[in-house]
Structures are given as C-alpha cells and as structure tokens.
Amino acid sequence: MKIAFFYRRLDQGGIQRVILNSAEYFSRQGHDVSIILMKKEGEYLDIIDPSIKIIPFKSSKKISLYASFKEILLQENFDILFTASPPLNIFAVLSKLMMKTKTKIVISENNNTVSLFGQNRKLTITKLTFFGIPLFYRFADSIVAVSEGISHNLSSLALLPKHKIDTIHNPAYTNQLLTQMNDEVNHPWILDKKEPVIINVARLAKAKNQKLLINAFANVLKKRKVKLLIVGEGPLREVLQEEINRLDLKEHVDLVGFQINPVAWVAKSDLFVLSSDFEGFGVVLVEALATGITVVTTKCNYGPSEVVNNGEFGYLAAVGSEEDLSNKILHALDFPLPKENQIKRAKDFHVDTIMQKYSDLFTSLTAV
Question: Any idea where the Glycosyl transferase family domain is (predicted)?
C-alpha cells in the first residue's frame, strides 16, 4: 500500500509521536510511506527513519494550501491518507470532495474537541472548523477515535451513530523505548539524587495545567523533601516560571525545556504526574508506564482513566483540585505500584498490536 500521514509540522506533541510510530511501523512492513507536512519543521525531523518520505507543501500561505495539497495527492496517488486533527480532517475531506482521487481518507480524533473548543473564547479560523465536524466528517472513508471517551464525545458532536466510529488506541509503546530509557540524563537532581524526583512531561500549555501541579507540589514540599522536573516547552513558560518564583520554589522546581528523549528522564525519576484538564489519550502516560514508574494523573476526559484502567495502574486525582492532587502525590510516594504490572500494562498499547488494527482497517478500505 501507498500510505501518507498528514500533519502541520513534526514538533513536540503526542500526535506527532504517534504519526512517527505509525509511519515507521508501516515502513517496516514494506509499505510505501510518506509524511505530508504543511511546513517542513519540527524537532522530530531529526530522528525520523530515512525510509519515510517527507513531502512539504510548496507554500504554507492560506491562499495556496489547497493547490499545494491537490498537487501532492494527484501526483503521489496514495491508497490511504491519514489525518489527525479537526482542521486537517475537514481540510482533507473537503479537498477530496473537490478533486478526483481514489485515495481513501482516514480521519482520527485525538483530542477532547469540546473542551479544546471551549478553552479559548477567541473565534479563530481553527475554531470555526469545529462547526464543520457534523457537516463533513461523515464524508470521510473511515473515522477513528483514540479512546472510548473520545468516541462517545465525537458521536454526539458529529451527529453520527457510534458504529460509524472505530476506537483504536494510540500505538504508544515501541521497542525503542527500552533503549531510550537507558540514555544518560545530565541533570544534578538525577545524577546526584538526594531526594525523590517527581516528573511531568507535557507541553507548557493551558490544557496541561502545570500551574496546578506547581501549587500542589508546594503543598507536598511542606510535608517531605522532594524535587519536581517539568519537561516540555510552550507558550506558558514565563507564566509558570513566575509562579515558581512567587512560591519561592526555584531550588525545588526546574523547567528543563523540550527533550527529544523524555522517557530517559522519566525512567530515572520516582513519580510521574499528569495534571491535565483534558486529554484525548495520553501517549506520555503509556511511555511512563513502560519504565515501571508509578503514575498520578487527573481523572480528566478522556484517555488517562482508560490508560490506567480506572486506577488499577495509576492514582487518579480530581481535575483542577490542588488539594486532591497533592494528597495523591503524597500517597503515591509512600505506596508505589508494582513495576512489573506497570510495564505489562504499557505493553497493551504496543505498536505491533495497535497497528495491526490499522493495517486491517486500511486493507479493508483499499479492497473496496
């Protein structure tokens, strides 16, 4: 099969890692695999398998987007095109409706669209595309949701019966994690560990709510010595640093920025905490579980509760509750979960297991 994955750029993010994992899987299976990017940018470009073809748009100007996309689709004649965000999903479906192509469009819903829509009151072009979900999603050749919660949410939002949406979890566990987690980490709190290290890996953005985590951590620090590392980059760096300074936590909390291999940091820490207000799946949770670390996550809509199986493989805290999050962190430090169980759970999301479901789906679509 000739398969293409379509996204804006390959910068930090769970969707981008899923695209890389998926593309590399199909390439290993002998398929002709490409990644179409609106802009050939992003940290993950440096680590992508050379067998995968990168196809950038000729122009990323809004007026030229359709022409660039049409030229690529007609020239490459893909069997399958996979997209993974509402604006790109609608763009891909509309483009197919406007041109003659046999390419099957598979759209994936990776985030809590309703929460994402309500997060910002500004009416942007991206936000306007959400109104197109009930109009255009039905014209896709296949619709995939990455969690059961997202599937139910999307069924209501897109005005589609549940059976029209396939639920396939993200392929978050890869064999490369086993070697990546052994990579060196050059940080004094890791190299010369004197206190337990709590770690968070996420983009520094409103939805990830690291401000809640920092305030919960301040409560934890009143009861025991501990450090907090926040791995990731984003628009709220200055706001979070100001909060750290305000609470006089500069000696205890460190924003270490984006790291190309965050799992190495997680593997050398003592507790992983996800403080998000909402998620779609939670790729980083699976990667954390793969190291055997105990995890605490907010019980946010939708993916994290599914990943930790409603508390069996991680402690669940109430969304937005500083008190509950700090209590769960203290409890988790005192009562870590069995490493072997955490690792076994992560393997439920192995790329080979998950991607076989996509392989079956793609094969069924191209057989029609």
Answer: 191-347
Are residue 147 and residue 180 in the same domain, yes or no? no
- Both 216 and 235 in one domain: the answer is yes
142 and 219 in a common domain: no
User: Do the beta carbons of residue 49 and residue 21 sit within 8 Å?
Assistant: no
Query: Are residues 280 and 184 both part of a single domain?
Result: yes
Q: What is the pTM of this model?
A: 0.90
Q: Which of 7-16, 138-147, 282-291, 321-330 has the lowest mean pLDDT?
A: 7-16
CB 64: neighbour CB atoms within 10 A? 12
Residues contacting residue 155 through CB under 8 Å, at least 6 positions apart: 161, 162, 164, 165
Domain count, the chain: 2
Q: pLDDT band for position 240 (50/70/90)?
A: very high
CB 277 within 8 A of CB 318: no
Same-domain pairing of 135 and 221: no
Residues 61 and 123 in one domain: yes
Enclosing domain of residue 321: 176-348
Answer for the pair 58, 100: CB distance below 8 angstroms, yes or no. Answer: no
- Six-digit token string for 19: 């695209």
Angle made by CA atoms 149, 21, 339, in degrees to the nearest 5: 70
Running DSSP on this structure, what letter comes out for residue 260? S
List pLDDT tens digits, range 307-331.
999 999 999 999 999 999 999 999 9
Helices 86-98 and 65-76, axial angle in degrees (round to 10): 70
In degrees rounded to 5, what are phi and psi of residue 326? -65, -40
Average pLDDT, the chain: 94
Determine contact, residues 79/362, Cβ cutoff 8 Å: yes
In which residue are the tokens 């998000």 written? 276
Q: Rounded to an integer, what distance in angstroms lies between the CA atom of residue 34 and that of residue 249?
A: 45
Q: Indicate whether 165 and 193 sit together in one domain.
A: no
Distance CA 328, CA 320 (A): 13
Which of the residue ranges 14-28, 236-250, 324-338 would you say has the lowest mean pLDDT? Answer: 14-28
Helix (H) / strand (E) element for 50: namely none
For residue 334, count CB atoms less than 10 angstroms from its CB and return exposed for 0-12, middle for 13-18, buried for 19 or more.
exposed
